[in-house]
Amino acid sequence: MKRLNIIGLLLCSLIFLGGFLLKGKLPLYFNIASLMIVVGGTATAAVLSFQLARLRIVFKVIRSSYGRRLKSEAEIVDILINLAIKSRMEGILSLQEDENETSVLFLRRGLGCLVDNYSPQQIRDILNTEMYFFKLRREDSERVLRTTADFSPAFGIVGSVAGLIPMLAGIDDTGIILKTVPLALTSILYGLILANFFFTPLAANLRERTNQELLLQKIIMEGIIAIQSELNPTVLRTKLLSFLTPADRKDDLVPLSHIQKRFHISDVEISQNSQHEPHGSFGPGGN
Fold first, then answer.
1. Which of 29, 143, 169, 219 is the most buried (most CB within 10 A)?
2. Distance (Å, rounded) from C-alpha 215 to C-alpha 31?
3. Given CA atoms 246, 250, 256, 258 in this order, what sign does their dihedral have?
4. Neighbours of 60 (CB within 10 A)
């Protein structure tokens, strides 16, 4: 995770815990029996619903999502531009070195297709298939997390019922009531926290990460096909910059003065056009 994310997470968690401390003592909210019911019940339901191999994959994906930094779109564009220049100077087979060195698996896959001299259509079909099944696998992992998030509040209610039954049975015994009421209330609390503080945010983070990786893969695919077609690196750079946000490609924009010089447009003509053109007009047809 980025340092700012970690700092924000710690600050927000402290505010969250501070709300419990504001009107009471933190130990009052700890109940081992409630925790066992909610966590044990949620884990049991997850194991019954999904294979252990699937749960292990989800754990690895989550660990990778928070532990491994993704390359930015601008970094991927720079890598592809460098590969395009190297390909034009030394030939396609020179990319064999980069196939073994790069850490982006999807890029390695694309470079392998280049080295093996696949046609542009074959490369597009292979990489599109790779992207499709990558998205399916990630959606399966997200579904596991969201389903598990649905289990937690339900077992919070189970713990609450487990506390209410002995309380009603010993309605005349104050001691039994004092022992069972915390179980009933903290179980619901644990179920809600487990669902909304862990599983649902993990699923949302996984979806965001998947969307980012799919965008990177799309950039890589277009770059690989352009390299195979021996597209000029300058033209390739202009094409790939379309994937970046305006902030990331701001320095690449052609200055207005250069545009005026290229098309022989004077400041007087621009001023006259702006005066004669109605506000809000987008052409002869208006809006």
1. 219
2. 45
3. negative
4. 11
* Torsion of Cα atoms, 15 then 17 then 21 then 27, to 10°: -170
d(CA 217, CA 231): 19
Residue 124 lies in a domain: yes
DSSP three-state, residue 128: helix
**Side chain identity at 187, as an amino acid letter?**
S
Q: How buried is 264 (Cβ within 10 angstroms: 0-12 exposed, 13-18 middle, 19+ buried)?
A: exposed
The dihedral sign for the CA sequence 230, 234, 240, 242: negative
Q: How confident is the model at residue 233 (pLDDT cuts 50, 70, 90)?
A: confident
* 211-231: average pLDDT: 89
Tokens of 19: 């709300």
Q: Say what the pLDDT of residue 50 is.
A: 94
The answer to the question of residue 212 being in a domain is yes
What six digits make up the tokens of 93? 């087979």
* pTM greater than 0.90 (yes/no): no
With CA atoms as reference, report the closest residue to 218 among 242, 235, 249, 246: 242
Q: What is the pLDDT of residues 94-138, one digit of tens each?
A: 666 666 666 678 888 888 888 888 888 999 999 999 999 999 999
The number of folded domains in the chain is 1
C-alpha–C-alpha distance, residues 194 and 27, integer Å: 18
Does residue 26 form part of some domain?
no
Residues 156-172: b if buried by 16+ CB within 10 A, e if exposed: bebbbebbeebbeeeee
Confidence label for 286 from pLDDT (cuts 50, 70 and 90): very low
Residue 88's domain spans which residues?
Answer: 31-55+71-243
- The first and second tokens of residue 51, run together, are 């294979």
